[in-house]
């Protein structure tokens, strides 16, 4: 259903911490002009953990309105409370999202049966297409391939963002689910290989900073053109690494501030701005990718 480079969009903020509305508008326009295939609004990279309920809905709705149907918008609506996830998913559907991205419940540490029942309950209550999101490095909860296979039988669970970076895990899910579920990489460093082996795209942090190159790399990989994908990906490898030298979205927000989107101090506690020691590494990666900075 969704293909290519899907940016896990940051939520730009002012130094005060409030959402920077002008920067958000400019950032969406930047992606529409530079080949991004879909926008994921208010996921992990969008600081969903520190946006309050009103802000979460506002940013989702604002992105949907700004995109105006030009590309799909996938709303981050996951929660460690099943009831809250249902409520936010219902709201995203009402507000016009094309799909929802639902992270595995964090902190509670549910069993595999609990994961199945959680996602089954959301899918049965809300008819919108839903993408599972497995990122055990953040959630302390790993959705195993056998559970993904069970959930693939639910018609509106249409895909999974598999962010372990483990290509063997991705291959196993593909074998178990076949064409019942689309797989999306959630790990930029391995995304090219992930797509070449059958994945449908990448829900990407790097695409925040280099949207056109990420679109071109994903398009080449989807076409089976390894040589072109490898050539483009070589210019992005520095970003794939440096944007994770401190917890996401710290480096991405700093990089975008250098490009004019938001403030270098525009991030919410407990996250803090990018450290001085890491800044030169991010800047060098940006230069390797051919990105111009205004500051």
What would the keywords be for this entry?
295 residues; TIM Barrel; alpha/beta
In short:
One of its GO terms (biological process) is diaminopimelate biosynthetic process. By secondary structure, the chain is an alpha/beta fold.
Report what the structure shows.
The chain has 295 residues and is an alpha/beta fold. The protein has a single domain (4-225), classed as TIM Barrel (Alpha-Beta Barrel). The chain is built from twelve helices and eight strands. An eight-stranded parallel barrel has the order 1-2-3-4-5-6-7-8, surrounded by four helices. Strand 3 (73-76), helix 3 and strand 4 (99-103) form a beta-alpha-beta unit. The chain starts with a strand and ends in a 7-residue tail after the last helix.
Q: Structural class per helix/strand content?
A: alpha/beta
Pattern of helices and strands: EHEHEHEHEHHEHEHEHHHH
Helical residue percent band: 40-55%
Sheet with the most strands, sense and barrel status? 8 strands, parallel, barrel
Annotation field: number of helices: 12
- Name given to the CATH homologous superfamily: Aldolase class I
CATH class term: Alpha Beta
Radius of gyration: 18 Å
What is the 3D form? globular
Count of the separate structural domains:
1
């Amino acid at each position: 259903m969704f293909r290519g480079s899907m940016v896990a969009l940051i939520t730009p903020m002012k130094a005060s911490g409030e959402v920077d509305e002008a920067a958000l508008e400019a950032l969406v326009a930047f992606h529409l002009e530079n080949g991004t295939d879909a926008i994921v609004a208010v996921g992990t990279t969008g600081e969903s953990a520190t946006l309050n309920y009103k802000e979460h809905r506002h940013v989702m709705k604002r992105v949907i309105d700004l995109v105006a149907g030009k590309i799909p918008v996938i709303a981050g609506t996951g929660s460690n409370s099943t009831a809250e996830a249902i409520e936010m998913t219902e709201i995203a559907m009402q507000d016009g999202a094309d799909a929802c991205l639902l992270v595995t419940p964090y902190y509670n540490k549910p069993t595999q049966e609990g994961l199945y029942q959680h996602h089954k309950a959301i899918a049965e209550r809300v008819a919108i297409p839903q993408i599972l999101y497995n990122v055990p490095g953040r959630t302390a909860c790993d959705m195993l391939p056998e559970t993904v296979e069970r959930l693939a039988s639910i018609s509106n669970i249409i895909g999974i963002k598999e962010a372990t970076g483990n290509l063997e895990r991705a291959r196993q899910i593909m074998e178990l689910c076949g064409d019942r579920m689309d797989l999306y990489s959630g790990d930029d460093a391995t995304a090219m290989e992930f797509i070449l082996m059958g994945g449908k795209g990448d829900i990407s942090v790097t695409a925040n900073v280099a949207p056109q190159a990420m679109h071109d790399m994903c398009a080449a990989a989807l076409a089976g053109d390894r040589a072109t994908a490898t050539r483009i990906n070589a210019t992005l490898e520095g970003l794939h690494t440096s944007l994770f030298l401190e917890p996401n979205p710290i480096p991405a927000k700093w990089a975008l501030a250098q490009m004019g989107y938001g403030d270098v101090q525009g991030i919410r506690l407990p996250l803090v701005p990018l450290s001085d020691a890491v800044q030169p590494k991010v800047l060098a990666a940006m230069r390797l990718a051919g990105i111009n900075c205004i500051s």
